[in-house]
Design goal:
Chains A, B: This is DNA-binding transcriptional regulator, AcrR family. Chains A, B: InterPro entries: DNA-bd_HTH_TetR-type_CS (IPR023772), Homeodomain-like_sf (IPR009057), HTH-type_TetR-like_transc_reg (IPR050109), HTH_TetR (IPR001647), Tet_transcr_reg_TetR-rel_C_sf (IPR036271), TetR_C (IPR011075). Two copies of one chain form a homodimer. Chain A is an all-alpha fold. Chain A has ten helices and no strands. The N and C termini of chain A lie far apart (67 Å). The interface between A and B is large, with 54 and 54 residues.
Chain lengths: 199, 199
Amino acid sequence: MSSPSKAGRPRSADLDRALLVATQDLLAEVGYDRLSIETVAARCGAGKATVYRRWAGKSELVADAVAQLHGEYPEPDTGTLRGDLLLMSSIWLDPDSRRDAVVAGLLTAMAHDAGLREAVRVAVSEPHQAIFAAIVGRAVARGEVPAGRDLEMIGSVFPAVTFHHLTVLAAPVGKELVERIIDGVLMPALTWHEPTTRG
Amino acid sequence: MSSPSKAGRPRSADLDRALLVATQDLLAEVGYDRLSIETVAARCGAGKATVYRRWAGKSELVADAVAQLHGEYPEPDTGTLRGDLLLMSSIWLDPDSRRDAVVAGLLTAMAHDAGLREAVRVAVSEPHQAIFAAIVGRAVARGEVPAGRDLEMIGSVFPAVTFHHLTVLAAPVGKELVERIIDGVLMPALTWHEPTTRG
């Protein structure tokens, strides 16, 4: 029960990884509320006790599986704002990334579970916001973007609209959608110059 | 079992309404996957059989409860685009509207259930898009908005960002957030004039 975990055994690490991948799969397939530890274990040929030796419960297991989503992010520096935004978006188009489907499986549970929100924030939201801030920072330095834009708000548009498509519309996130977000919303919001004061 | 429903009996209509409100409450409290028909019935002092006489199952009950969210939408016509967008947003700030919490309770299930998506589309998404299109149509006629904007994309920003706050950030949708969406994203995306062609 309360035995200390023995880190570093290769077989154990392989099983850990397999259990986390199975958890990601089930989050994408049925979502958090319908995911059972028994099913996760069964997919790896293990029993529930094996999972409970490693994680205190479902919430901790899922948080760890979400943490694994923090993959290789490209560090875009193409020389133009639009080029950088397109490259930034390429991670969302990667067919090997199940980030979007996994997070969609968490959305309802996240509203009630601060631990899940924290896991998604660290693994998904913060890396996105950091890259967005770096891209726009260079665009400001180049004079492409005036200072004083609401970057936190504008930076939330891309993840917000893609998740909206995945859930409310159940529409896939493809190259066309990404270009519509960039050209229809992000570029104008970032680069516009107001000609006159509005009342 | 297959008895025809008797419409028009006041007591029955009252119970129908109570069951739908209880369903909305539970969607907001625990989400779709953890909502049980037994709990809905118990909150109204009824049994499961009472619910099953009215709805074929959970999916149909929830779709009906979502349909009831289609409340009174203001028809904004203040004379300016910004004024109309602010008035449009007031429905999201109505503390009596549980639309946002109810839909948050559906997001994960919606990804896998076309019936739920259809219910949300008809009760929430389409009324929003219709009002947005009317507002922008008048702004185009007044010369505030150039023709050719991607109105479907820009119109999805408001619901997308508000749901993003409710789930990923678990932040409330208040007046400040609404003004940041309108001034930081919607107004520039709708009204900007590109000075030069971009490569």
